[in-house]
Design goal:
Layout lengths: L5 E2 L1 E3 L2 E3 L6 E5 L6 E6 L3 H18 L4 H17 L1 H12 L3 H21 L6 E2 L7 E9 L3 E4 L7 H13 L3 E4 L6 H13 L6 E4 L3 H8 L7 E5 L2 H13 L3 E5 L4 E5 L5 H12 L10 E7 L3 H14 L18 H16 L3 E4 L3 E2 L5 E2 L2 E4 L16 E7 L2 H8 L7 E5 L3 H10 L4 E4 L18 E2 L12 E9 L3
Parallel strand pairs: 1-5, 8-9, 8-11, 9-10, 11-12, 13-14, 13-20, 14-19, 18-19, 20-21
Antiparallel strand pairs: 2-3, 4-5, 6-7, 7-23, 12-22, 15-18, 16-17
Helix pairs in contact: 2-4, 2-5, 2-6, 3-4, 3-6, 4-5, 9-10
The structure holds nicotinamide-adenine-dinucleotide.
Nicotinamide-adenine-dinucleotide (NAD) binds next to helix 7 and helix 8.
Family: Belongs to the aldehyde dehydrogenase family.
Enzyme class: oxidoreductase
GO molecular function: 2,5-dioxovalerate dehydrogenase (NADP+) activity; succinate-semialdehyde dehydrogenase (NAD+) activity
Length: 480
């Protein structure tokens, strides 16, 4: 499968261009060439999508959970069968190494399976009443049509969490996927269409993000919003949701701290974290970023981490052997370069990297900075790129203070052999997720989400369905 010349909208069961015929070019971040074009929806297309998603909800919410489960499992199988072709599309548009794109596509199939099964267990409750002739029951009902806004860093991974949980709960959905990476989410949705999802249940649009959210969020048809992206945009959308009394799930930025204590297996921790840092060129919301390392092992950790960073093969993700591809677009490249330059000017030491590679494609060196002052912008704003920040700390208390200094609270990591230190980290870290001595985040069955400026709600585990369900209480007194 080569890159599609035209990525189309999917509205009311049909693949089609926008009514206006407008398109947006899709750029290959590895060479800046045009891969194809994506349809740009305008208000007329959005109104059709709204009518379709309402109709889709009427059908899907009345479809038995067992039938929804069977259809979703079939879609998951199609995703698995097509994974190699889909992954090539993803790498071409997003840049990540092909092996990462394959893993993302295959894990999407596992996630669909998991939510399909979980949708059969959206149990209500029977509540003991205060009189013998009264029955009290709470039901879980699908909330209604969903509008989902997803970013480009995991073009399928971000869509599939929202799509699967919504469908498993009986909701229909309009997905606005990222214009930078439209081709692979379209293939994900094609698998559901080919598996037989009724028209209107899944709709896919692209266009001007602010125009689309400005039209969909206030619309009466849409009952909940799920957004993944930056904290700044998340706050705007959350405010809009508040104004229109819409529920929402917000999966926003992070600045993950990594606490490494002197009793940790230093070499293994450094290798694991270096490989995790440069995955997807650091464009991961739970990417390990602020390394808070106990002083006694600081040099050893930084040396090992940097030596791994130097061996990472950077290049076109479609070329065999590439470990790290380019960042997604020119804006990202500029943003990472500026943050690194400012940090160096403010006194940080560049241990390795720190430059753009070549002048075609958005490649940036795997970078390690040490001793950046906490006032440097990079220590406060999410770098969202291949940059690790090393900082010595006197012990666990100092590490926890620094870890909790920011308003972000998404992912966090810790390395220690001490059960006592691990317990102290668990109790005191302010984040939605903490992974101790391994990278254990983002499996389908575990919670995934943040607190404070990193947003609210969870997109993993059984609780993820709650975002798409209403609780209805019915009390019934029997008349003699
Ligand atoms: P951004 O917030 O501008 O865009 C992120 C996504 O949100 C994009 O897909 C974009 O199309 C969409 N978006 C933007 N404005 C919107 C609006 N008004 N309504 C609806 N959708 C809107 O960020 P960016 O410049 O693409 O990426 C930079 C920052 O975004 C990163 O530094 C990072 O903090 C954050 N980000 C986070 C994640 C994540 O997984 N949490 C993913 C991508 C980006």
């Amino acid at each position: 499968m080569s890159y599609p010349e035209n990525v189309l909208l999917h509205i009311d069961g049909k693949w089609r261009p926008s009514a206006s015929g407008k398109t947006i070019p899709v750029i290959n971040p590895a060479n800046e060439g045009i891969l194809g074009h994506v349809a740009h929806a305008d208000v007329a297309d959005l109104d059709e999508a709204l009518a379709a998603v309402g109709k889709g909800f009427a059908i899907w919410s009345k479809t038995a959970a067992f039938d929804r489960y069977k259809l979703m499992r079939n879609a998951a199988d199609l995703v698995r069968q097509r994974a190699n072709e889909i992954a090539r599309i993803m790498t071409a548009e997003q840049g990540k190494a092909l092996v990462e794109a394959q893993m993302e596509t295959l894990s999407a199939a596992d996630l669909i399976d998991w939510f399909a099964e979980e949708g059969r267990r959206t149990y209500g409750r029977s509540i003991p009443a205060r009189a013998a002739n009264i029955g009290q029951v709470s039901y879980k009902e699908p909330i209604g049509p969903v509008a989902a806004f997803t970013p480009w860093n995991f073009p399928i991974g971000q869509v599939v969490r929202k799509l699967s949980a919504a469908l498993a709960s009986g909701c229909s959905i309009i997905v606005k996927a990222a214009e930078d990476t439209p081709g692979s989410p379209a293939e994900l949705i094609r698998a559901f269409v080919d598996a037989g999802i009724p028209a209107g249940v899944i709709n896919l649009v692209y266009g001007n993000p602010a125009q689309i959210s400005g039209h969909l969020v206030p619309h009466q048809t849409v009952r909940t919003i799920s957004f993944t992206g930056s904290t700044a945009v998340g706050k705007q959308l959350a405010a809009l949701c508040g104004q229109h009394m819409k529920r929402s799930t917000m999966e926003l930025g992070g600045h993950a701290p990594v606490i490494v204590l002197k009793d940790a297996p230093v070499q293994q921790a450094a290798e694991l974290m270096a490989r995790s840092k440069y995955r997807n060129a650091g464009q991961v919301c739970v990417s390990p970023t602020r390394f808070l390392i106990e002083e006694d092992i600081y040099d050893e950790f930084v040396d090992r981490f940097s030596s791994v960073a130097k061996t990472i093969k950077v290049g076109d993700g479609l070329v065999e052997g590439t470990v790290m591809g380019p960042v997604v677009n020119e804006r990202r490249l500029q943003s990472v370069s500026t943050l690194v330059q400012e940090a160096v000017q403010s006194g940080a030491k560049l241990v390795t990297g720190g430059k753009r590679i070549g002048n075609s494609g958005y490649f940036y060196e795997p970078t390690v900075l040490s001793n950046a002052p906490v006032s440097a912008r990079i220590m406060n704003d999410e770098p969202f790129g291949p940059v690790a920040l090393m900082m010595p700390v006197s012990g666990l208390d100092a590490a926890l203070d620094e870890a909790n200094r920011l308003d972000y609270g998404l992912g966090a990591f810790g390395f220690t052999r001490s059960a006592e230190s691990a317990a102290k980290m668990s109790r005191n870290i302010r984040s939605g997720m903490l992974s101790i001595n391994h990278f254990g985040l983002a499996l389908p069955e575990v919670p995934f989400g943040g607190i404070n400026d990193s947003g609210y709600g969870t997109e993993g585990g059984a609780d993820a369905l709650e975002a798409y369900l209403n609780t209805k209480f019915v009390t019934h007194m029997q008349i003699e």
